[in-house]
Design goal:
Helices cover 81% and strands 0% of the residues.
Length: 443
């Protein structure tokens, strides 16, 4: 669990640090006098990275189902290291014109492919590696590590804000976190090569060696048999991913651009709120192991549908650190109902032979369409003078997911391996025998 989580932390650090430092390097690649337009350009490249997530989800999800979760996790972190290094050395507009923006674009495409496979491989690995009655808790560490990766980036940003001038940050300081990201990834590569494979995958691989047909394992043809579950993954992801990116990557820009808050104060608000958010994940995961997944998902969707407009409106006029922090925490507590258990829910929908691909591809498609574009849509509404329309957009996405949560079955008791399925069959047989015994005694 620790090995899987640490790797996930570094992957998401590299992914999110782009958004955290965009306010400092936007004008290095996109010259102009309008800061909102510059941020829209960098947000556009941020969104383009999401377009590669379905490709990465397909290729690396297939690799995870056919060759193991461990090999896919090792490959994703290698790709992320190369991408971070590309951003660190990308030339500015003044040095090479728009060639620097092209390098930035290529790096984000590579990062998108990497993270598209990382989400599914880590979600599958953490869920399969957990005890059956603690899968909610185990899978919650995906968002713990994701958030800690973002916190690491914000922590580096805060440190640099207090040690470097704004001019230094904008001229060369923004490159430092990407160099660190490449170095972190090298360390994680070594850690991931030492991970143990999950029992569920080893069991599936052994079945193939014993003569069972595994030619379709991890293929689109196999996934098509579970197209309903794939549709569920997309629908249940829609509201969660839009809300998550709204209150994490976009929050700092919103506090600076709309509330008029200082960059350092807005960054500190995000850092503190995300710290509390990370701590909450395991507790919500444990709660889902007791009461089921659907109650938490429904609570999130109702809260997000009803609460987004008033929370975002209040944040837009927040005048102090404490008021902004309180509102941010309220939003993140609501989102915890989704983030803490979504990895387990998605993994529990599919059998082992297509689990990683089943989680990866539909999730990546939903993220490419809605998660990656959330920041750009928000800035587009702001630039057009209709910023509040974005709040309704977030609420509408949450409402669609709410309908899905109400109609879908609870997945807490799903069997993830043949051993668990056999245990369920044995318990069912014992219950039938117990029920039949009194009737036999009467006869």
């Amino acid at each position: 669990m620790i090995g899987g989580s640490l790797g996930n932390l570094v992957e998401w650090y590299d992914w999110f640090v782009y958004a955290s430092f965009a306010i400092y390097f936007a004008d290095s690649f996109f010259p102009g006098d309008n800061p909102t337009t510059q941020l829209m350009n960098t947000a556009g490249i941020f969104a383009v990275g999401f377009l590669m997530r379905p490709v990465g989800g397909w290729i690396l999800g297939r690799a995870a189902d056919r060759h193991g979760r461990k090999s896919a996790l090792t490959l994703t972190v290698t790709m992320m290291s190369v991408a971070a290094l590309l951003i660190a050395v990308a030339p500015t507009y003044g040095q090479a014109g728009y060639f620097g923006a092209l390098v930035l674009l290529l790096a984000r495409l590579l990062q998108g492919m990497s993270i598209g496979g990382e989400y599914a491989a880590s979600a599958t690995y953490l869920t399969e590696a957990s005890a059956r009655n603690r899968r909610g808790l185990g899978s919650s560490f995906q968002y713990v590590s994701m958030t800690c990766g973002q916190l690491l980036g914000l922590g580096i940003l805060i440190t640099m804000q207090h040690t470097l001038t704004t001019d230094q940050l904008e001229s060369w300081g923004w490159r430092i976190p990407f160099v660190l990201g490449a170095l972190f990834a090298v360390v994680v590569f070594w850690l991931r090569r030492r991970l143990q494979e999950t029992d569920a995958f080893r069991e599936e691989a052994a079945a193939g060696e014993d003569g069972h047909d595994d030619s379709t394992r991890g293929t689109l043809r196999a996934l098509w048999q579970y197209r309903r579950q794939a549709g569920l993954v997309m629908a249940l992801t829609l509201g969660g991913t839009v809300a998550y990116y709204t209150y994490t990557t976009y929050l700092t820009k919103y506090l600076v651009g709309s509330a008029g808050m200082e960059k350092t104060t807005a960054t500190l608000v995000s850092f503190t709120a995300l710290t509390v958010f990370a701590v909450l994940q395991p507790f919500a995961g444990m709660l889902s192991d007791r009461i089921g997944r659907r109650p938490l998902l429904i609570t999130f969707a109702v809260g997000c549908t009803v609460g987004t407009y008033p929370i975002m409106t209040a944040l837009g006029s927040a005048s102090s650190y404490w008021s902004a922090l309180g509102l941010s925490l309220l939003a993140l507590v609501i989102i915890t109902g989704y983030t803490s258990i979504n990895a387990a829910v998605k993994a529990e929908l599919f059998p082992t032979r297509v689990r990683a691909l089943g989680v990866a591809l539909p999730y990546a498609v939903a993220n490419a369409l809605f998660g990656g574009t959330a920041e750009y849509v928000a800035l587009w509404f702001k630039n057009s003078g209709h910023e509040t329309m974005f709040f309704w957009y977030v609420s509408g996405c949450a409402l669609i997911s709410l309908v899905t949560y109400v109609l879908m079955p609870d997945t807490r008791d799903a069997a993830l391996s043949r051993a668990e399925a056999d245990a369920d069959a044995d318990r069912a047989a014992d219950r039938r025998d117990s029920a039949a015994a009194p009737a036999e005694a009467v006869r």
